[in-house]
Amino acid sequence: MARLLLYPQKKVSDALQIQLKDAGPVVYYPLRRLEARNISEEETQRALQAEVVVISSHFALQVFNASLNMFPQVGVACVLSAKMALDVSKQFSGTVVISAQENQSSLRERTLDYSNRKVVWLEGDHFEPSFQKNDQVDVLTVYKNVWLESDTQAAVNVMKNYQFNQILVTSPSAFERLLKIIQLLVNSENWNEASYYTLGERTYTTVQNHFEKVWIPREHHNVLAKAVQQMLGDNQ
Fold it and tell me: In terms of CB atoms within 10 Å, which end of the chain has fewer, N or C?
C-alpha cells in the first residue's frame, strides 16, 4: 500500500516529508501545470487601479512578487496563510492581512474592511468566486492551470505501479483529472476502497460525490499539516 499526494513535494515541509517516508511508500503528483498569463493592456489598466490585492494561491503570489510595478497603488495584500504572508513581505512593503481561516469565504470577509477601496483578486483560470464582481471588487486572471492528454497518460504510467490506500486531493480540478486517470487503470476498483483527504469544503463535496471515505479538517488552519497527520494517524 502507498500514499498519493496530489501536491508538490517541495511545498511539503521537510519534517512532514520525513514522517511520510518513514511510514511507507509515498508518491507526490500534483495534477496540474501552472503557467503565468500574458496580461492584456485592458487587464494592466485594471491592475493599475488596484488598492488592495487578494492572493489565495502560492502561484498567484509568485506572479504578484514578480510584477509589483503593475500595482503601484496597492497598500494592502490579503493572503490565505501565515506562510504566504511571510513570502509576500519579502518584497512588498505595504500592510499584509492574513485570513482567519484558509478558505475563500474567510479571505473574502477580511476584504470587507476595505470596501471603500478598489479590491482585486489575483487568481487562476479555474477560480470560482463566491462573490459578485462590481466596481469595487474585481478578479484578475494571472495564471492558467494547464493539463493535456499527454499529462494524463504520464500520470497513468506512474500510478499503475502502485496500489494507493490514502489519497490527498487539494482541488476539484485535480480530482476531476484523477477520475480520468482511474478510468484508464486496470485496478480502478481498488480506488473505491481508499481513503481520501481534502483541505477545503469545495474539494470535500466534490470527492464525496464519488467516494465514501472522505476527510476534511475541522479547523481551517495549517490544513496541509493536519491532513498529513490524519493520514499518518489513520494508518497506525
Answer: C
Amino acid identity for residue 100 in this structure: A
β-pair partners for 69: none
**Phi/psi of residue 70, nearest 5 degrees:** -80, -10
d(Cα 234, Cα 214) in Å, to the nearest integer? 12
**How many structural domains does the chain have?**
2
pLDDT of residue 22: 95
Q: What is the pLDDT of residues 120-142, one digit of tens each?
A: 999 999 888 878 888 899 999 99
What pLDDT score was predicted for residue 128?
A: 84
Same domain membership, residue 42 and residue 139: yes
Other beta carbons less than 10 A from residue 62's beta carbon:
16
| CA 5 distance to own-chain centroid | 13
Q: CA triplet 205, 173, 215: central angle to 5 degrees?
A: 35
Contact predicate 84/58, CB 8 Å: yes
- Count CA atoms within 13 Å of residue 180 on its CB side: 15
Grid coordinates representing 85? 504572508
Q: What is the CA radius of gyration of the chain?
A: 19
The three cell numbers locating residue 57: 494561491
CATH number at residue 175: 3.40.50.10090
Q: Cβ distance 24 to 232 under 8 Å? A: no
Predicted structure pTM score: 0.83
Same domain, 198 and 226: yes
Q: CA angle 190-149-203, nearest 5°?
A: 55
